[in-house]
Design goal:
Blueprint: E1 7-15, H1 47-53, E2 64-66, E3 71-82, E4 85-102, E5 106-115, E6 124-130, E7 142-144, E8 148-150, E9 159-160, E10 166-167, E11 171-173, E12 178-181, E13 195-197, E14 200-210, E15 213-221, H2 229-238, E16 250-251, E17 259-260, E18 267-269, E19 286-289, E20 300-305, E21 311-321, E22 329-335, E23 347-349, E24 352-359, E25 361-362, E26 365-366, E27 368-371, E28 377-384, H3 389-413
């Protein structure tokens, strides 16, 4: 038996569940004669229908990068340099359109390098059009997160009032260049959208819906499936990685966040357990983060971590999920903006009114991660629907179909049907 010791990275979280059903109205029903959504236009079909239609098409084997020279049309757009990069800055009502020549028919994911320009502080929203039309309904509403941080540096706590209670730090935006793979804003799909491009010339238009944004480049990237944890272990073995030998765990207090995607995800206090550190029975201390402020799909919290010894580490979170009785919640794990393996897309936190230690596991095995000494790593958790994704998507699709049929009936009967009439 392998008796090597592994160090754990402990974080404290307050987690809550979020389960919702999105109702997206279809386009004008008068355009159709039969009450079936499958017969509607391309722009009003769902991504599920689009994906099923082209599921047998080949994925691309190379990436196509588009810089600002590929811009063929724009409105309410200015070209300027931002933090060393040339960018096209679009306002709340403008658009920017890129032209791309695709060598052969294939499916790509769409990656956008963007900078959150100062605005009203809300989530940035854009519509993505291909050749002048939305390929599916979800492409009308794509979210781009901002980055927020605490204004007070964490030094075993923040600031305190004259009573000894810890003061919640204010939040400020810290704009920076970020890359985003275009994904469903509602969280109903686990993976980035796969766009089909036929051979030849195409246009990609980013239509402003909310908040200004700067764009440096657009990439049509090849789509690669995530490796499994077993494959990652094989890579570690081939590289000769071994367990770290330290006896003391590396602990990062969860309230000491690096950045968050929303300004409302800030440190909070919890006095349910004296094991939650820091703890003081007489004073209010900020010792957790999350709770009801961290529940929308796509919302993220990022921490920075360092280790004193290179090697393999286990990763664990001290968490509590007590929002909806009996319902588990899920988070997606990123390390340096990359999902380390397939199973890390769905870290399940079971319901429990008490705090619990949640290890990243595959089956019964606690996963190990390689960290290099003195290197700063960014550890990010993202809200997702987890095991509920397919269920909620199916219910959402059924709800849309029922709404569509209902509107078709209303066109004939009106809102107050005549009981004496044979429709």
């Amino acid at each position: 038996m392998n008796k090597r010791k592994f160090i754990s990275l402990f974080l404290v979280f307050a987690l809550i569940a979020n389960m919702f059903i999105m109702e997206t109205l279809a386009d004008d029903p008068q355009q159709e004669q039969t009450p079936t959504r499958s017969s509607q236009s391309e722009s009003s079909q769902s991504y599920y229908e689009y994906d099923q239609k082209y599921k047998d098409k080949q994925r691309a084997d190379s990436t196509i990068a588009l810089d600002l020279s590929a811009i063929s049309a724009s409105s309410d757009t200015q070209l300027k340099e931002i933090e060393g990069k040339q960018a096209a800055v679009t306002g709340e009502d403008g658009f920017v359109e890129f032209t791309v020549d695709v060598p052969k028919e294939a499916k790509y994911k769409l990656v956008i390098d963007y900078y959150p320009v100062e605005g009203k502080g809300a989530t940035i929203k854009r519509g993505v059009m291909i050749d002048g039309a939305y390929p599916f309904s979800e492409a009308r509403n794509v979210d781009f997160n901002r980055a927020w941080k605490n204004t007070v540096e964490y030094n075993n706590g923040f600031e305190f009032d004259n009573k000894g209670d810890e003061l919640r730090p204010t939040r400020e935006e810290v704009p920076k260049w970020m890359s985003y793979s275009v994904t469903d804003a509602s969280g109903l799909y686990d993976q980035p959208f796969e766009f089909l491009f036929t051979q030849g010339r195409h246009t990609i238009k980013l239509q402003s819906e909310q908040e200004p944004m700067a764009i440096a480049s657009v990439r049509l990237e090849k789509i690669e499936d995530l490796i499994s944890y077993e494959q990652l272990k094989e890579q570690y073995n081939d590289m000769g990685y071994t367990a770290a030998s330290g006896e003391t765990p590396v602990i990062v207090q969860a309230e000491n966040t690096y950045i968050t995607s929303q300004p409302t995800v800030y440190p909070i206090y919890d006095r349910a357990s004296p094991l939650t550190q820091p703890f003081d029975e007489a004073h209010l201390l900020l010792n957790t983060v999350g709770s009801t402020n961290w529940q929308e799909c796509g919302d993220t919290i990022t921490w920075q971590i360092k280790v004193n010894e290179s090697g393999l580490y286990k990763l664990a979170f001290r968490a509590r999920n007590n929002f909806v009785s009996g319902r588990a919640v899920s988070r997606r794990l990123y390390i340096n903006d990359e999902i380390p393996f397939k199973e890390a897309e769905n870290i399940v936190i079971p319901f429990d009114s008490s705090w619990q230690m949640i290890y990243v596991t595959v089956g019964e095995e606690q996963c190990k991660f390689y960290f290099e000494k003195d290197q700063t790593y960014e550890l990010k958790l993202e809200v997702n629907l987890g095991d509920f994704t397919e269920i909620i998507r199916s219910v959402s699709e059924a709800t849309e179909n029922l709404n569509y049929v209902y509107r078709q009936i209303l066109m004939i009967t009106g809102s107050n049907p005549d009981p004496n009439r044979d429709y």
